[in-house]
Structures are given as structure tokens and as C-alpha cells.
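Protein PGR-like structure dump, as promised
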Amino acid sequence: MEGLLIRSGVAVVLSLAIAWRANRHKSLDRSGAIAGFLVMAIHIAAGYRFGALLLVFFFTSSKLTKMGQEKKRSVDVDFKEGGQRNWIQVLANSGLATILVVTFVMMTGGEDTCLDTKKSKLLTGLIGGIVGHYACCNGDTWSSEIGMLSKAQPRLITTFKQVRKGTNGAVSVEGLLAAAAAGFVIGLTSVISGLLTATDCDADVASKQLWVIPIAATAGLGGSLIDSFLGATIQFSGYCTLRKKVVGRRAPTVIRISGMDVLDNNAVNAVSVTLTTLLTSMACLYIF
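C-alpha cells r here:
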């Protein structure tokens, strides 16, 4: 309990500083900064491993979002300086993980543990789900940001036909490799931080934690593919002849490229994250 109280103090100070800086540098708007502060504080207070996962996702994604902004401005109709995210986008990328983190800390009192189904299937599933969650979010962001900077023309995941950059469901080799790399980074972060903070890992259990890295890399790639498939099928994409850009809404000047107008981008992200979280949790229960 003492550790939880200390982490809570650290969480408030650190989260406040990061949220303020993110708002100042236009990574988050005001609503996003408030939501980000709450989410970060909860993660860090619950455990340094969870705080590390969230912060690695946030900082790496923010840096990539700011790369090649002029090129992205010409492609992305919803482009915002600095990649500014609002509270809806913050919660779409962290809401489910926050619920899992709160569940974890209520069960453990804030004591970290290794993934080991012999000790607790539920805790192993929770940690695995959180890792899968951020592997998916990181993979989707890295894939999108690097894919937009690729010189190659992307292809629609359902037909493999070349489409314009910015089309929902479009994939590229560079983007898919980036998604796997993003998941790898999340897995590595979980292993390193987990081994530093967990107190119940003997040699055999500790060595088995390395499986988290390929699992997370697969979750990063798989989550990106799920997101792309949903984007290509139930998220509308069209080319606006007036703005000369791909857009996500129907209009008289918009020529349909792909997808049905069922879900918007935030909803697609939420569905892909939920599926990847569940699948990764199940994979960890099977492996550990």
C-alpha cells in the first residue's frame, strides 16, 4: 500500500508536467490534455510498468506524427499542426487499458507480478491484454504515419488495388513493418519494466517473460491489419474533387473509393483495439 501511495504522488506530478507540455507543443488540445493527465496518472499510480507502456506509446507516436508534416498536410484532410489529439482520441487509445489497469490494481493493491498462469490466470490475462492494447495502438499509429511518408503507392487490403494515400484500409510494406516494430517496442518495454518491478519472478518464470516481445510484435501487426480491414469495409473513403484529398464523409463533390459509412475513425480504432486486446490476452493465457 505504501508503494501505491508513493506512485500516486509521482503520478500526479509527472502526469501534470507531461500533459502541460503536450498541450503547449500541440500534441494534445486542452480537452486531450485533461483526459491525458487523468489516464497517465491512473496508469503510473497502478504500476510503473503500465505507466511505461503508455508513455512509450505516447512519446513515440507523437514524434512520428510530427515527422514530414508538410507532406502529411497535403494528404490528410484532418491534418492538425503537431498531430493535436482531443479527449475522444485519447480515450479511444487508452480507455480500455485504463479499465484493465484499474482492475489490476484493485486485485493486487498495486504490486506488480510476472505473467504466470500457475499463480494467477486472471492477472496474466489482464497484463497480456494491456500489452496487446498498446501494441495495437502503437502499431496502428506507426503504420499510418510512416505509410503516409512512403514513396510507394499503398494498396487497399481487401482488393490489393493501388489507392490514394489517406484511404482507410490502405496498406504498404513500410507501414506493416512499422506496425510490427511498434509492437516489438511495446513488448520490450513491458519485459524490461516488468522484470524491474515484479517481485515474484524466479529464473524460469523470468526467462519466459521474453515471449511477451514476439507476442506484442504480432499484436502490433495484427491490430494494424484488423484496423485496415475494418477501415476498408465499414469506414467510408472518397476523393473530394474540390479539395483534391481523400475524405471520410459523403458529399456531392466526393467520389467513393471504398467502404460503407458505418463507423468513423475513432470507432474503428476502438473496435480493433478491443479485438487485439482480447486476442493478446488469450495468447498470454495459452503461452504462460
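The chain has ten helices and five strands.
lmk if u need the other ones
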